[in-house]
Amino acid sequence: MLERPLPRWLAWAADPEQLRRAPFLARSPLFTGLPHRLLARLATRFFEKAYRRGEVVFEEGDPGRALFVVVEGSVEITRATVQGAYVLNTLGPGDAFGELALVDDFPRSATARVATPGRLLILYKSDFDTLMDGNPRIAVVVMRNLSRLLAIYARRNPVLVTEPGPRPETAGPS
Amino acid sequence: MKPGRLLAWGGLAALVWLARGLALPVFLAAVLAYLLSPAVAWADALAIRRSVAVSALFAVIIAVLVVAGFLLGPGMLAEGAALMDRLPALARQIDVGLDAAVRELAESAPALRRLLPEGGDWVQRFVLNRSAGEPGDLFEHMGHLFLLTILVPFFAFFLLRDMHRLIAVAMDRLPPQHVETSVAVWRELNGVIGRYTRGLVLDGLVVGALAALGLWAARVPYPLLLGAFAGLANVVPFVGPLLSAAAAGLVVVLTPGQGLAGVGRVVLLFLVIKVLDDTIIQPFTIGRSVHLHPALLLGSVVVGSHALGVLGMIIAVPVATVLQETARLLLEHRRVLARRDLRHHPERLVI
After folding, report:
1. Tens-digit pLDDT profile for residues A29-85
2. Hey, are the CB atoms on A126 and B191 less than 8 Å from each other?
3. Cβ-based neighbours of B252, under 8 Å, separated by 6 or more
4. Does pTM top 0.90 for this prediction?
5. What range defines the domain where residue A143 resides?
6. Do the domain assignments include residue A10?
7. Residue A122: its chain B contacts at CB < 8 A?
8. Cα B160 from Cα B30, distance rounded (Å)
9. B47 vs A59: CB contact, 8 Å cut-off?
């Protein structure tokens, strides 16, 4: 994806996959505000994988090494309690999860399970770090978006912050 | 295992065995693909189709090679021809020196006489009679070289064009619970090998250019050939710089009028290049791609040379780094899973 798209006479040389991926990422709350040039570079670092219904993307306690973005289908974020697992959030196309893996090295704080079959984009933490090293703008924009998401989450769930417990209607990062 | 699957695996193993002759071209093609992959990644970010980007890249490389051939080719060919003309005289000179040294050694230590090689003219026999006596060998070598120059770019082209498709197919077949660790291992390996390969080639180019310039300034004959050899030999850790210094030293010794002062200049030149390489060039080229303890680094080179000779010495460092990185990721994965398991099943805690 170019800041200026390829001229029409060069349209035959354009890669439809990349043309689709960068604008798609631009709509994701985590990457919103990134210029197209950086989004295009970011888009090349993602892997894509198809998931079937019920497949576990990661489990609570797993080492977190990647960020996921839903392309198609939906993913349920659940957390285990003594009363049983409860759904924190259901994510659809454009939503990102597992973003805390980009920030720290702690294990996953929730489980992600595919609710309806679809495809996920996967960004490995070190790839993101390499991009940030070369482009501090990516770090600033993504961290600002992440802080905003965490702030929304904290405001919505003041009880959860101090007193964990099942809150089926709540949403949050994993 | 089902008979069909067993048959398929057996067939695959037989195919790999039959195609073992392609191992070297595929290896060299992978090296070339790693060298060129940043340019392809740049084209990816511009949303240019892989086939178009890789074709354009190869067209540019061919153009650069043609220009470089026009600029450097005549000089290198002239040096090569001059060296071939002088080769019989050089071989004779080396043999005379070797014979004298062996005789002197035998006289000063008679006990060693039975350990010393018999006869003489070793270099003449090895260098001069070989190709003349076995023309079939020469044609076979030329044939292999020709095949490599065709196959390596051919495989590299398809590796660069289709690798992302192969990865996509592999990703879709991976069990979900192994995705994160597999992606982590693949990315780390890819990063280490890519950075190391590109760094090594860049390092070799800089060292070769410095050696050629230095030898030319020191009026040593064949500076282009010796510089090219220094650049190539530089990819072999520890031994490479010694070999290139020895080759240049030998040329100086056999050149009338250079004398010991010439040898001193060559030794000093290669020492300065080595220090510059270790302190300034390598940190910029290879940089942080290798995190091996010096003892492990040396050990890996020794093991590599025993296993695969010169090729083993070249690939020893990235292979050891890759193994270390993979082991670190897998152990970390296992440790975290064990901790989680313990949290879910505290009764399993054994003190």
Report:
1. 888 888 888 888 888 889 999 999 999 999 888 888 899 999 999 999 998 888 878
2. yes
3. B220, B258, B262, B263, B265, B266
4. no
5. 16-154
6. no
7. 179-180, 183
8. 9
9. no
